[in-house]
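Re: the request from the purification team.
They wanted to know what the chain is likely to look like in 3D before they choose a buffer screen. I agreed to run a prediction and write the result into the notebook, where they can find it.
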Amino acid sequence: MNEARIDKWLWAARIFKTRSMAAAACKKGQVSMKGAQLKPSRTVKPGDVIEVRKPPVTYSFKVKQTIEKRVGAKLIPEILENVTPPEQYELLEMSRLSGFIGRARGTGRPTKKDRRSLEEFTTPEYLDDLLFDFDVEDEEGGEDD
């Protein structure tokens, strides 16, 4: 077999848990090859480099072997080669350190403390230099006593 459907290959190579999740990712435009988004029915062949966007990281995989049946995890190195650049893993580590990207479902709204620490984390320091006070006069035009 020298070609396989992209949704089946993504599922068989254990990139997605189910084939329907792989097909949905293709439909959402999260799977691409050479900058072009792929439909679930698109075929791949050995040597193709596939990019899978799972925010905040875009993973890149080189197809070594095309399969359509799921295999054991030990056989995955024979199926694909992970060619994701190290910068993508740095993005992943930064998002883990921030703690707010992966907020657990069902925990509700952030507390006031969470919100303040998030604002402190996301507000660039150079904006502090741009903030300044305006001199505001009373409505009557006089100075404050």
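For the purification team: The chain has a mean pLDDT of 82.
Please add any questions underneath this entry.
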